[in-house]
Structures are given as structure tokens and as C-alpha cells.
Known about the structure:
Elements: H1 21-32, H2 58-61, H3 66-71, E1 73-78, E2 87-88, E3 94-95, H4 97-109, E4 112-117, H5 120-129, E5 134-135, E6 139-140, H6 143-146, E7 149-164, E8 178-182, H7 186-201, E9 208-212, H8 215-223, E10 229-233, H9 234-243, E11 248-250, E12 255-265, H10 270-283, H11 286-294, E13 305-306
Parallel strand pairs: 1-4, 1-5, 8-9, 8-10
Antiparallel strand pairs: 2-3, 6-12, 7-10, 7-11, 7-12, 7-13
Amino acid sequence: MMRDLRSFGSLRRLPGIFMVLVGVIALVVAGCSNDDSSTGAGGNSAIQPTTVDVAKQSDIAALLPAGIRESGQLIVGVNVPYAPNEFKDSSGQIIGFDVDLMNAIGKALGLTPVYKEADFDKIIPSIQAGTFNIGMSSFTDNKEREAQVDFVNYFSAGIQWAQQAGGNIDPNNACGKKVAVQSTTVEDTDEVPAKSKACTDAGKPAIQIQKYTDQSEATNALVLGRVDAMSADSPVTAYAIKQAGGKIVAAGPVFDSAPYGYPIAKGSSLVQAVQKAVQYLIDNGQYKAIAEHWGVEAGVIPTATVNGATS
């Protein structure tokens, strides 16, 4: 469920997450809810922000548009929650993988990121209007969006299934299995139904698709053993696995991957500055350290590209 269609209210922004068994469930609920309150996405049980030592890179900062460089600030449009990439902790602070990485980019550029919340579908128009310098909301880079803005690609996200520890679920042969999805995500509308149809076309039982309003409910159903597997966006699944304390594990690799990107006004030299800053963090290990902290290292990339959409 990429954040392509996230304006429809779904996860993959098709377009947050997350004593004995009760303790495990409480942990998952605290980390998975779409609620921004203290018991919601983030909560006290969620992974806390991390910082990395990054010195200002004067040669990269020299590429910044004069107005941004002189202001000392990078105005970032963001939509929450979408754990673990961007969501709020119990104090209302926006945290997550994207936030830690953007903060590191800011250090390399000698800028302080200033996060401004907005509806997801209003971020790109606000960048075009000059209200925001950059967007940071797990945007999937695609050709349609590249007609409006440029993208600096920084991550690869796809779909990944999870199962209970000790399970033996094959996402390509889950006929007759109960599979949890969040309603209206691409996993619900496209991916799992297509797999189910392949089963019935082959004369096998259909997949029993179990739909849940929130991703936290789908994750909890798996932890409790009410379903055999769940399907979600790859960083969502990775974060749920990390939060669940060993109760659930990946069921196969990430598939149907596409790049996440930071949208920036077309033709702005901020594009080159951000691309080189991300590449600097990749080359020096800070990028990987941040990804590992949030449990999303499966999506790291070796090269920060510009406008890398393939469809």
C-alpha cells in the first residue's frame, strides 16, 4: 500500500503503526494505533527518536537556493500518522524514521527543519505554491507526480507479509489461509484479492481476507493467532515485527517495491542539495544507522537518485 493513494485514507499511501501475552499485545497496540494521543501511534512503548553526528557540509550547503540558505530553515510539509515513518509521540512531537533522516539532512545542509502538518493531498500543491520547501510523508515517486514536482529518492518500499513465529506461510500460496489487511489499502483492494483469485482459478480454496479498520487491529489479530498472516506496507510490517517482541516474523521478502521520495519544486537547486546530502549520509553510515534504529533497513538504498519512478 504505497502512499500513492493515501488521499483515500489508506496505508500504503495507495495512499500509524503500531507481562506475558497481554504485555506483547499492549506493546503492539501502543505502537500501532492511528490515534495521535499518548496511547496512540508512538506512545511510550514505541521506538524513540535517534540522533546521529553530522557536520555541516559547506560544499553541499552552497547548492541551496539563497533564500533558504539565508533563512537557516527548511520548511517541511508532513502528514501524520504513518508509523514508523512519521507519527506523534505521547507529547505530540512528530517523530519517526523520516523525521530522524530529515533532521540529519538538515544538519548536513546547515538548516533547521521546521515541520508543518498538512493534508497529504495538499503537500505537493503547497510546494508548488512556495509554502513548503519540501515534502516528507512517505511519498511514492511516480511519473504522474514527477510532472508536478521533482523527487529525491531515499528509500525503497513495497509489500511484506508477516506470520506468527514458527509459521510457514508462503504469500504466493496462501490458499485457504486467514490473512489480515487494513481496509482500503492496496493489500485489501488489489494484492491479496489477486492472490486469492489465483487460488480459486487453480481450484484451491480462496484466501480468507480479514479486514480491519486500523493496522493495529490487523497486527493484534496476528499476534493473538486469530489469523495466519498479515499483509502491509514493508516499513509498516518491519516496524510491527520489531514492536511485537518476537511474536511475529516476516513471511517472505519485500515485493512490488517502488521508491519513496522527497517532493521539491521543479527546477529548484534544493533538489541537488538534498540529493547530495542524502548520499553523504548513505556513504558515511548515518543513513543506515537511522534505518536500523527504526527496523526498516530492508528498504535502504545505495544511491540517492532524482526522479527514479518507473511507472
